[in-house]
Amino acid sequence: MVITTTTTSVSVHTISFRGIAGSIFVALTLAILLYVIGFATTAWSINGAYREGLWENCRCGKIGDAQDWFHAVQAMITIGLIGLILAFLLVCIYMCVHSLSKNKTLIALVIVCFLSVVFMVIGFIIYGSKRDGLHWSFAVTVISSILCLVAGILSVVQMRQSGVRM
């Protein structure tokens, strides 16, 4: 008689608003709030009478045309916003919907957080290399991307504590 045993690892997810999952939620909530403020305002760059945001620029009553690099920045920052919103939805699903796989949701959250940060940083690098006089809207979106990175790192920690393997 041959007896075979199989060992399966069971992931145990500790989900609490006071724990790591709550910290991820708070970081992503603040990140979305700050990112939308920076995304929508016209103070990415200010030089004298010239003000520029992602969607509007103005120089003494004249509106200028956007260059190709600027369209690339708009695309990267918009993809970052979409990813940030998706990450927020994933953390809400992770914390509140118990009928879906917690492991897959957490893995997706990690991937989306880090990909969003990559797109954001690409947009920041392009914009920062082309413009002088970076101002508060730019800074707010950079802070938001740091919060998204923190959420991604906390998600990895949550994965490790829950025993999730990729």
UniProtKB/TrEMBL annotation:
Keyword Protein biosynthesis (UniProt): no
Membrane topology per record: Multi-pass membrane protein
Annotated InterPro entries: PMP-22/EMP/MP20-like
Transmembrane segments: 20-46, 72-94, 106-128, 134-157
Chief location bin: membrane
Alphabetic keyword roster: Membrane, Transmembrane, Transmembrane helix
GO cellular component: plasma membrane
Compartments, record wording: Membrane
Name used for this protein in its record: Uncharacterized protein
Species the sequence originates in: Paralvinella palmiformis
